[in-house]
Amino acid sequence: MQHNIFATMRSFNFADGCQGTQVYALNPNGPTSAFGSIGEKCLQHLQDFGANSVGIRLNRNGQTSPHQTVSNVVGIENLLPCGLPVTDLLEPQIEPCLRPVDFVETLADLYRRTENCPPSMKSEFYIEQCAVFRGLSDPKLFRRSLRSARQHAVDVHSKIVLASWLRYERREDELIGTSAMDCSGRNIQCPKACLVHGYDPDLVHDPCICSQSCSGEIDDVFSTKDEDCSTSDEDGDMSFCIGDDEIRCIRSRIASLSRPFKAMLYGGFTESRREKINFTQNAISAEGMRAAEIFSRTKHVGSFDVPVVLELLSLANKFCCDELKSACDAHLATLVNDIEVAVFLIEYGLEETAYLLVAACLQVFLRELPGSMYSSYVTKLFCSSEGRERLAQVGHASFLLYYFLSQVAMEEDMKSNSTVMLLERMADSATECWQKQIAYHQLGVVMLERKEFKDSNHWFEAAVQAGHVYSTVGVARSKYKRGHRYAAYKMMNSLMSNCKPVGWMYQERSLYCVGKEKMLDLNGATELDPTLSFPYKYRAVLLVEENQFEEAISELNKIIGFKVSPDCLELRAWISIALMDYEGALRDVRALLTLDPHYMLYQGKMQGDHLVELLRPLVQQWSKADCWMQLYDSWSSVDDIGSLAVIRHMLVNDPCKSLLWFRQSLLLLRLNCQKAAMRSLRLARNYAKSENERLVYEGWILYDTGHREEALAKAEESISVHRSFEAFFLKAYVLADSSLDPDSSMYVIQVLEEALRCPSDGLRKGQALNNLGSVYVDCDKLDLAADCYMNALNIKHTRAHQGLARVYHLKGQREPAYGEMTKLIEKARNNASAYEKRSEYCDTDMAKRDLSMATQLDPLRSYPYRYRAAALMDDHREVEAVEELSRAIAFKPDMQLLHLRAAFHDSMGDSVSTVRDCEAALCLDPAYDDTIDLYNKARELVNEQPN
């Protein structure tokens, strides 16, 4: 059984493709000033079209649309209020993350240090891994390291921060009906388990302890019997007098509370000789002293009211009663369950240095993020230097805490004062080199966004001084913004002379060049790193300036075909408006709003929904039935952008349709836009009208965030409530996400067959049939597989051509296999994978052409590089084979690419390089057995070599 057999339906390479920002600029002087006659002609052409061509349009039923009369024609000045973009003002974004020059060496070093460090320090190295993985396109790597950091955390503080961060990554605050203190069911995120100190990496996989009593650690539930609540005159041998009250106590028990009490009651003080001791001036009430007496005998505080326990906490601090303080601290920690209680109790915790109580309060604040930052108290505590000092006194001011808070703040509002202050606290807490690098670099990025160029220059230089070479880009940009263009150019030129050039170096240097030199740098950037979007956008805008609008869109299509981002879609929509392609523009704006619903167009000057309303009268209106037909057509032609746009349109008319939100999430995952996909899944869950439907969507959320067992449990629970297609499909999908034996495969087949017996629409039935065919192929039941694929094709599931081709190939029918893939290429809008797969069914020369086309359409696909490298190795061209893999690894550190390059190095006798590549690959996937075997073999050879 092959791993991930259902990859045809949902992508497992979840790249964070929706993080783009508006990095091109507008013509600030209106639509004509930048281009002269070109701009005037374009504007006149559009105005003529608006006056003469829109007119009255008919819908499919031949009725006049009220939105499409001449009187309601939208003026071009409204569609393009700022004119067209200009190249002179274009700039790429500086990424706010660690970006090593040599990713492979960094990954290898991280793996070595993590494997060789003491168990108690592993959590710190996994956090460093998180920082490095933020710079990669796969958020699964970041979350995996975050889970590993939580798994190996020792102290309570690290546990609450890491568990809260995991919760934030799932955005559980957006799930209606959930509480901040809800538990996911496992100890790894259980709020009570986080308050238990100690190292036990296997414990995180156990069920949570929410329903259990953890006596002596968290819960301090104690019901005192009547005879224990007071001390009789016969038992007491001394009294504390507080005002008019007299509290009888047992001297020896009170003395056992602390050394100060023992010295007072049995030492050389006068109190040791008195039966009655005046305790009025010690800031404790009679009720509080009675509670202290009861604790001296019972060692529990659970039966006392909160004010009394707070008095005991103060008494414990004053008289160094460690056991009493621990009991009060632990009991108060169990009472913290919402923001109001946390704000009330944390002051006592900070004043009395109650570690667990402060931890419990912090946990609530962190699990409520980002909402808790709207509390002025919480903001002041976290952001101010005084707040950091107070937290530090209790052991709760760490780099980890401020790293988490800063990332949340940057996502919410990068330019806010709160973000700046949190980053400053993060910098104050940094001790390791990598911590200083990321703190200083992010401060530089934020200051640059705020246009505080002198400060940004300072922080970027500090990051470079700490060893972060990528921050040189920030230094150069800051100098450029202050008018020192040549100094910026010299800086980037010097960097490229001293380091092996990578794509972002060429991209940055292009800003400070002109003419042919600029284009050479931009083309060099694309050659070294085709995932950089800025060069495509610059070339597209340059073509617009030359009045080559179709060519400009073709240039943008190159990157949108494999990396979808709001800014590229906006630019394409912008150019489509200039071409009078209003349907294309409307499609792109709707798709853009799917990625980022709050996106502001034209450099923050227009809401996306407003442009949609301006464009709608200029296109044919669709009924509900039209929308479904369009969705089927787009889905069948593998036009994911078009499908997104249709679903967005349908959701505007029916925003509570959970099925549509779910469909949207599937498309977004296929486009590698995981954050947007997770948002859609959460909305699907929130709008679910039945319990079984809600459980299914919760299961997908769990599965997509790496909680496989919990996802399976949700599927089972949903089936127990109601047997539905989606519940069975989820169950089958989760079960198949592993290497299955024949018995397990048969079980997956049974589950999929159950799914197909349940009501569903053609889109989902086609996916289920396609997946069932894949399982049949893995079980060598080719005829049954072929039937599944044919049935899927009959309901327009175009991707089934790929499965059918595989069946023909396994039957030895090469030409039909090639023909099926050709059909897929012809039908599919996004067909890079089809070219890749067709290469398996043709001769060598044709295979090379198909793989070259696949790389051109989607340079992120790793198979073509591996194939070409293997072919070069077969021809004994080892150096060229390694170079082929190295080109891809430079912009896509991929486990399979690294493993293959390690194998090549091994065959060439280069054990040192083999070890390095294996370590980098294992940092990405620690459980890959083939790499582990190769690594152990190479390491033995290295150890045998003489020094």
Automatic annotation (TrEMBL):
<dbReference type="InterPro" id="IPR019734">
    <property type="entry name" value="TPR_rpt"/>
</dbReference>
<dbReference type="GO" id="GO:0010105">
    <property type="term" value="P:negative regulation of ethylene-activated signaling pathway"/>
</dbReference>
<dbReference type="InterPro" id="IPR011990">
    <property type="entry name" value="TPR-like_helical_dom_sf"/>
</dbReference>
<feature type="repeat" description="TPR">
    <location>
        <begin position="766"/>
        <end position="799"/>
    </location>
</feature>
<feature type="domain" description="BTB">
    <location>
        <begin position="236"/>
        <end position="336"/>
    </location>
</feature>
<comment type="pathway">
    <text>Protein modification; protein ubiquitination.</text>
</comment>
<dbReference type="InterPro" id="IPR011333">
    <property type="entry name" value="SKP1/BTB/POZ_sf"/>
</dbReference>
<keyword id="KW-0802">TPR repeat</keyword>
<dbReference type="InterPro" id="IPR000210">
    <property type="entry name" value="BTB/POZ_dom"/>
</dbReference>
<protein>
    <recommendedName>
        <fullName>BTB domain-containing protein</fullName>
    </recommendedName>
</protein>
<dbReference type="InterPro" id="IPR044631">
    <property type="entry name" value="ETO1-like"/>
</dbReference>
